[in-house]
Write a structure and sequence with these properties.
This protein is of the alpha/beta class. It has a domain at about 5-185 and about 220-245: NAD(P)-binding Rossmann-like Domain (Rossmann fold). It has helices spanning about 10-25, 45-50, 65-75, 90-95, 95-115, 150-170, 190-200, 220-235, 250-260, 285-290, 300-315, 315-320, 325-340, and strands at about 5, 30-35, 55-60, 80-85, 120-130, 175-180, 180-185, 205-210, 215, 220, 240-245, 250, 270. Strand 5, helix 6 and strand 6 (about 175-180) form a beta-alpha-beta unit. It is globular and about 55 Å long. The chain binds nicotinamide-adenine-dinucleotide (NAD) and 2'deoxy-thymidine-5'-diphospho-alpha-D-glucose. 2'deoxy-thymidine-5'-diphospho-alpha-D-glucose binds next to helix 7 and strand 8. Nicotinamide-adenine-dinucleotide binds next to helix 1, helix 5 and strand 5.
């Protein structure tokens, strides 16, 4: 495993993973294969292209395009796929579920088929704790049943099942990781932490859904990347591994950390209409991954505060996104009525 196709590598976690792997493994070659949807940006990899030009290539392409996927594998003699490519925002899955089914289900099938045809050494599927559904008590273990409740988590569940089916049916060497909520640099400011950090910097309201007592495990993105790395190198084929801090916090606690880090007042908090079908709590049991020698470095509170500081120091990255028409239209659609009614 030395020549990786990182699909969705121009997005948030994929770009962090690409940088992390190229820094750690001097013999690795990585092709980022990405459609560049609204969430994917070449800028996320600008430093990677400059620092690792001879070990890194970028191909703009759709994972649903079998011909281009296969051509890329052949052209670059790739031996591994790490699949980050997905539609990822739960709120968008409630208004436009079709693109989630297309990319997260059909696209995963296309990649699995290519991995089988080209007899790749590994196919790794980057999945999510959302496939377990909401967990009101206890912690989800990898053996727990799937109970997805949003079009996003249902699509990701189908991707997981297809991955396991290729292992059971044809012995494809697959692994799966299920990550908790990631925070860190280059996350598109539709997700809650970058949205709240950038709104607070501009003294704009922070729209907390419902009572804000929903529970999430906010993990730092590099802890997640390290978990995927460990599974790629030490994970057992056909197995699933949870990745998270193993702790959690409520959204209102997270919001207070965002405000305190920036020295902004709590009067910016606005409770707005809740997300339909909002999962109340996710919580992962991460002992299986820990047994492989992985450990998480940052707590939820440290991860959120570090992320907020990155957004405060990197306005040049997010201001062009937030001032664009596409983002403004999305924000208006998603929040205008809610904020007026609050
Ligand atoms: P993101 O939305 O920031 O990035 C997704 C990337 O995929 C973008 O670069 C986009 O251009 C690309 N993409 C989308 N459709 C594509 C297609 N059809 N073909 C090729 N590329 C396409 O997402 P993220 O937050 O970095 O998440 C990456 C992966 O990790 C996803 O599979 C997601 O389900 C999973 N995950 C995310 C989190 C989280 O908290 N963000 C947690 C656990 C798991
Ligand atoms: O748990 C892993 C998942 O985490 C990933 O699989 C998804 O790709 C990723 O988007 C994320 O899903 P969430 O729905 O948990 O993340 P989001 O940032 O959208 O919301 C986090 C919490 O904050 C959730 O309880 C909803 C709440 N929220 C979100 C937004 C955008 C608000 O209160 N207000 C908001 O404006």
């Amino acid at each position: 495993m030395q020549r990786l196709m990182v699909t969705g590598g121009a997005g948030f976690i994929g770009s962090n993973f690409t940088r992390y792997m190229l820094e750690k493994y001097p013999d690795y070659f990585i092709v980022v294969y990405d459609k560049l949807t609204y969430a994917g940006r070449r800028e996320n990899l600008q430093d990677v292209a400059e620092r690792f030009g001879d070990r890194y290539a970028f191909v703009q392409g759709d994972i649903c395009d079998a011909k281009q996927v296969e051509q890329t594998i052949t052209d670059y003699k790739l031996d591994t796929i790490v699949n980050f490519a997905a539609e990822t925002h739960v709120d968008r899955s409630l208004t436009e579920p079709g693109s989630f089914i297309q990319t997260d289900v059909y696209g995963t099938y296309v990649l699995l088929e290519a991995a089988k045809t080209h007899q790749l050494e590994r196919y790794h599927q980057v999945s999510t704790d959302e496939v377990y559904g909401q967990v009101l008590t206890g912690r989800s273990a990898e053996t727990d049943p799937y109970e997805p409740r949003s079009p996003y988590s249902a699509s990701k569940t189908a991707g997981d099942l297809m991955t396991l089916a290729y292992h059971a049916s044809w012995g494809l060497p697959v692994t799966i990781t299920r990550g908790a909520n990631n925070v860190g640099p280059y996350q598109y400011p539709e997700k809650v932490v970058p949205l709240f950090a950038t709104n607070a910097i501009d003294d704009q309201p922070l729209p907390v859904y419902g009572d804000g007592l929903q529970v999430r495990d906010y993990q730092y993105v590099l802890d997640h990347c390290e978990g995927i790395d460990v599974v790629l190198h030490r994970g057992k084929l056909g197995e699933i591994y949870n990745v998270g801090t193993g702790a959690e916090m409520t959204n209102i606690e997270m919001t207070r950390i965002v405000l305190a880090t920036l020295g902004k007042p709590e009067s910016l908090i606005k409770h707005v209409a809740d997300r339909p079908g909002h999962d109340r709590r996710y919580a992962l049991d991460v002992s299986k991954l820990r047994a492989l020698g992985w450990k998480c470095h940052l707590t939820c509170a440290e991860a959120v505060a570090k992320t907020v500081r990155w957004y405060a120091e990197n306005e040049a990255w997010w201001r062009p996104i937030k001032s664009g028409d596409l983002y403004k239209q999305y924000y208006e659609r998603q929040y205008e009525k809610r904020l007026k009614a609050s």
